[in-house]
Amino acid sequence: MTSKRYFVLVLILGSLTALGPFSIDMYLPGFPDIAKSLHTSTENVALSLSSYFIGISAGQLLYGPLLDKYGRKPPLYAGLALYIIASIGCYFSTSIEMLIALRFVQAVGSCAAAVASITMVRDIFPVKDNAKVFALLILILGASPMLAPTVGGYVTTAFGWQLIFIILTVIAMLITLAVFFFLPESYKADPSYSLKPKPIINGFLTVIKTPQFYTYALSGGIAFSGLFAYISASPLVLMEVYKISSKTYGWVFALLSVGFIGASQVNSFLIRKYKSQQIVNTALIAMVIISAVYVLGSLQNVLGLVGTIVMIFLVLCCIGVTSPNTSALALAPFEKNAGTASSLLGAFQMCIGSVVSVGVSLFNSQSSIPMSVIMLAASSVALLVLIIGRKNIKGSVAAKDSAFVAH
C-alpha cells in the first residue's frame, strides 16, 4: 500500500469515526440558547445528549450483523442517510421532546459510521498495525473537540443553534461522497450469514465469551466513560459554575482535547518500546491517582477554574493512551466476525457512556464533584476489570495449550 493510499484510507475512516463525536461536541456551547429557545432548562437539554448516547448504544448492535451479512458499505450508506434525515429534523425542532427523539435517531444513523470504520481497520490493515491506525484515527477524531465546540460557539452566537444541524448535514453528505468514490469495499457480502435472531445471538455470545475481548472491551469502555462524564458535565460546570461564555467554553474545550489527542499520538511511540498490555496497565493506574486528587480538590473547593481544567486535562491524557490499545487488543482475536466484534466493542463503550451521561444530568450539582467522582469510579473499576480479566486470559491460553498437547 502506497503512503498516499494509506493516508486517504486513514483520513476517510477517521472522518467516519469523528462524525458521532462531532455531532456531540458542536452543539454543546448552544445548551443555554437551546434551553431559552425551547422554553426548558439546561438540564433537560442535556437529556438530548443522553438520548444520543443511548441511540449509539442501541445502534451498535444493529449494524454489526448487517456489516457481516451485506458487506461494509451498504449498511454504511443506510446509516449515513438516516443521519442526514434526522439532522434536518433537528433543525426544525420546536420542543425539547422533539429534539431528544431526533437526536436518538441521529445517533442510530451515526453509529453505522463508527462501527464500519472500526471494522474496516481490522479488514484493511495488519493486526500488528491496528493500535497505530487507531491512534491515527484518534488524531482525526481530535478535530472534533478542537474545532466543533469553538465553531459551535460562534455559530450559535451569530446565527442561532439551529444552523449547527445544517452544518452537520453538509458534513455527513461530504463524508458519504468520500466513501462512495475513495473507500473500497473491504469485505464481500456473505449470503450464508444468517440474520435470524438465534445465529446473531450466538455470534454475539461467541465474541463475548472470548476472555481477551471482554477484558479489554470492558476495561477500555469503563475508562472511556470518564470522557463522557466530562462531555456531559462540562457545559454546566464551566459555563454556569465558573461563568465562562459559550465562545470561551469552545476554546477551553479545544484546549482540553489536546490532552486526549496528544496522548493518543504519544502512544504511537510507546508501542514501539512497550507492549499494549503494559501501556494500558500504567495508564489506568495513573488515571486512578489523578482522579483521586481531583476528587479531593473538588471536595475541598480549592481547585478553581484553572485547577479544574488541569485535572480534566490529565485525566483525558490517560484515556487517550488507554483507548487505542484496549480497542486493538479487544479486536485482535477476530477476523471473519470482525463486524460483530466491533459493534459489541462500541456498544459496551457507548452503553456505559450513556449511563454515565444520564447519571451526571441527574446530579444537577453546582460543582465539579459529580464529574470527578465518576472519573475516579470509572478508572478504579476499569483497573479492577483489567486485573481480573487478565487472569482469565492466561487461564484460557493455558487451557488451549493443554488441549493442543493432549491432541
Briefly say what this structure is:
The protein has 407 residues and is mainly α. It has one domain (8-183, 194-406): MFS general substrate transporter like domains (Growth Hormone, Chain: A, Up-down Bundle).
Q: Report the biggest beta sheet as strand number plus sense, adding barrel if it closes.
A: none
Cα distance spanning the termini: 40 Å
Give, in order, the helices and strands. HHHHHHHHHHHHHHH
Query: What is the strand content?
Result: under 5%
Inertia-based shape: globular
Rg: 21 Å
Oligomer: single chain
Task: Tell me what the structure shows.
The protein has helices at residues 3-25, 31-37, 42-70, 73-91, 96-124, 130-141, 143-159, 162-182, 197-208, 211-241, 246-273, 276-300, 304-331, 338-363, 369-406. The chain has 407 residues and is an all-alpha fold. It starts with a helix and ends with a helix. Residues 9-394 form the Major facilitator superfamily (MFS) profile domain. Belongs to the major facilitator superfamily. Bcr/CmlA family.
Please name the defining characteristics of this protein.
407 residues, mainly alpha, Growth Hormone, Chain: A, 15 helices, 85% helix, cell membrane
Strand and helix map with partners:
Blueprint: H1 3-25, H2 31-37, H3 42-70, H4 73-91, H5 96-124, H6 130-141, H7 143-159, H8 162-182, H9 197-208, H10 211-241, H11 246-273, H12 276-300, H13 304-331, H14 338-363, H15 369-406
Helix pairs in contact: 1-5, 1-6, 1-7, 1-8, 2-3, 3-4, 3-5, 3-14, 4-5, 4-8, 5-14, 6-11, 6-13, 7-11, 10-13, 10-14, 10-15, 11-13, 12-13, 12-15
